[in-house]
Design brief:
The complex is a heterodimer of chains A (237) and B (126). Chain A is mainly alpha-helical and 237 residues long. Chain A is built from eight helices and no strands. Chain B has 126 residues and is α+β, with helices and mostly antiparallel strands. The radius of gyration of chain B is 16 Å and the shape is elongated.
Chain lengths: 237, 126
């Protein structure tokens, strides 16, 4: 080992390099060609490997979130709100059958899934990245849990006919899905989830009759549009 | 890179100094996993500044370890980086040297990191 041995050829480069950038490395190793004992060398090597591991894990973050697709979903959500307002009435409005209004939101969910998956695949292709990657599967686990819970709770709310809870359930479960799925994705996804959770809290406190539809418009319409545009601008499409 | 006497473990002086800087090591490690990463993605991933990333990436580019492609997407400039075969070889060699610095019992884990870094096929030089 290097202990006791003189600097090897190329050591001068290391010393210059070390002086220029980091005389003392964050990981406690050294860049200089000065003699190091076995233990220090091994620790520096361990720290470097640890850094590489962390970088590889972080590089596995999902970066193919489709901002433009998200913005399109926002526009469709505003259209769904308009359809509820003008044609079907809201699911929680008394005196009208809730089924047509629920069908509008179910259709929005289905179309949004198709758009989301399609634009994500498109972005992956454009960036030369694999679509069905381990990181996408990891993100889907987090996302699916919140969405499934939303489905279960929606069923329970419809069965027990307390439809005024629907805005809070939808906003809350979608927000939780985004926060969980967003852990392995770019940070705006998590922040959008947090905003949905705040809207869910508002929906739980305010009467659905007056605030349900506006909160859904702000959430599924406004947040998708705003965060979609930001992601498209900041994260290449 | 120079090596110590035969049968001895390599010393830190045997590590490629161009890769040994943290940010440059991070750039190569990230590119080993992805065919291509944009400047924005690398900056966010490595939590660094535009200026720092630009300087370090240019050093790697000058050494032929990465290639840089600048294009316009609409009116927006888009810079993306790819690992070259030379860069991949340099990273693998760096990992092997690190691995040899460790006691034999730890080499298995280090080798696993090296394998992960080499998951994707080496890109063609451009």
């Amino acid at each position: 080992m290097a202990g006791g041995a003189g600097p090897s050829p190329g050591a001068a480069d290391h010393i210059l390099y070390g002086n220029k950038y980091l005389t003392e490395l964050r990981h406690g190793g050294t860049l200089s060609g000065e003699p190091m004992d076995d233990a220090r060398t091994q620790q520096a090597a361990r720290d470097d490997l640890q850094y590489i591991r962390r970088t590889l894990a972080a590089a596995g973050h999902l970066s193919i979130i489709p901002g433009r697709g998200m913005a399109v979903i926002g526009l469709l959500a505003i259209a769904a709100v308009a359809a509820n307002l003008r044609t079907t009435g809201t699911p929680w409005a008394g005196g009208v059958a809730p089924e047509p209004a629920l069908v509008v939101w179910a259709a929005l969910l289905a179309i949004s899934l198709v758009i989301g998956i399609g634009t994500m695949a498109q972005k992956a292709r454009r960036q030369g990245q694999p679509f069905w990657s381990p990181v996408l599967r990891k993100a889907l686990w987090g996302y699916a849990a919140g969405m499934l819970l939303g489905g279960v709770l929606t069923g329970a709310v419809i069965r027990t006919e307390v439809l005024a809870l629907l805005p809070a359930v939808w906003l809350g479960c979608y927000g939780a899905a985004l926060v969980a799925g967003g852990i392995s994705s770019v940070s705006p996804v998590r922040w959008m989830g947090v905003c949905f959770l705040l809207l869910a809290a508002a929906a739980a406190l305010l009467p659905a009759k007056d605030f349900g539809l506006p909160l859904l418009a702000v959430g599924f319409g406004g947040l998708h549009l705003a965060f979609g545009a930001y992601i498209a601008w900041r994260h290449d499409g | 890179m120079a090596r110590n006497a035969k049968h001895e473990r390599p010393s830190p002086a045997d590590l490629d100094p161009l890769i040994h800087e943290r940010l440059r090591l991070g750039i190569l490690s990230a590119l080993a996993l992805h065919e291509s990463l944009s400047f924005t993605e690398l900056r966010d991933l490595l939590e660094t500044t535009d200026g720092n990333l630009s300087v370090q990436a240019r050093k790697l580019e000058e050494a032929g370890y990465v290639t840089c492609q600048k294009k316009f997407v609409g009116r927006k400039p888009n810079t993306s980086y790819r690992l070259t075969a030379r860069g991949r070889n340099a990273l693998e060699s760096y990992l092997q040297t690190l691995e040899q610095m460790l006691p034999p019992i730890e080499r298995v884990r280090a080798a696993a990191v090296a394998r992960r870094g080499a998951l994707r096929p080496a890109p063609s030089e451009s």
